[in-house]
Amino acid sequence: MTLPMTLLDWIAIAVFVLCWAGYATVVDRVPAIRARSVIAAMDEHRRRWMRTVPGRENRIADISIIGNLMTSTSFLANTSIFILGGLVALLGAPDIGRRVFGAVPFAAVPENPVAWELRLFLLVFIFVRAFFELTWALRQFNYCSICIGGLGQGPEWTPQANVAAEVANRGARHFNTGLRAYYFGLAGLAWIVHPVALILSSILVVSELHRREFRSVVRDALRTPLPAEQAPANPSPDKG
């Protein structure tokens, strides 16, 4: 079976996949690059947070923070379900969808029903992936709350605190992957308008992700050493 796709469509899809898979592979799998990201900085802050938990008798604030993380994750997971429902509705009423997007200036909405469905199935795949990543992140934040509840008091509980930190960091990683799928879902939406729009939006998404994760003010602030890590401002001269 020959897919009703032009050469420009294939180029646009190749650019889209390269941007998403390439960016995720480099940022998540190359340690030297990942270490400079805002994600790695937040990993260290979560480790510090968990290491302080055994020193507190009252854990209400810690559980409240986990609850906030679960709420935002749950919101995005539920939203992905609503988006999937809308996409399924578009699959059931292709003429309405093509008429709506066809009103966009310079739009090249395909008349072939198979070509139209391919564009919608790409979005379905993206948001199904987002749903699975976000729900797995939600479960891991739930596991982390149980780990915090099981921590005792005293420095001997530091290994267990490190376990809780690792669970929280893994949850954050999957949350970030799900959120990244949302960004590329917006890029995938551009394919409905025109293949060139998909190319441009994919490049724009990668550029924006790189700026936020590697060149943002927040990233610089999170990587600022804590007072305990800073060298003395006026070290005493060596007397030896």
Short summary:
The protein contains 9 helices and no strands.
Describe the 3D structure:
- Helices cover 76% and strands 0% of the residues.
- It has 240 residues and is mostly helical.
- The chain is built from nine helices and no strands.
- It is elongated and about 70 Å long.
Essential attributes:
elongated, 9 helices, disordered C terminus, mainly alpha, about 240 residues
Task: Record the SSE blueprint.
Layout: H1 7-29, H2 31-34, H3 38-52, H4 60-92, H5 94-102, H6 113-149, H7 158-193, H8 195-214, H9 217-222
- Our measurement of the CA-to-CA distance between the termini, rounded to an integer number of angstroms, reads 82 Å
Outline type: elongated
Tell me the number of helical segments per DSSP (H or I, 4 or more residues long).
Answer: 9
Round the Cα radius of gyration to an integer and report it. Answer: 23 Å
Give the topology string: H per helix, E per strand: HHHHHHHHH
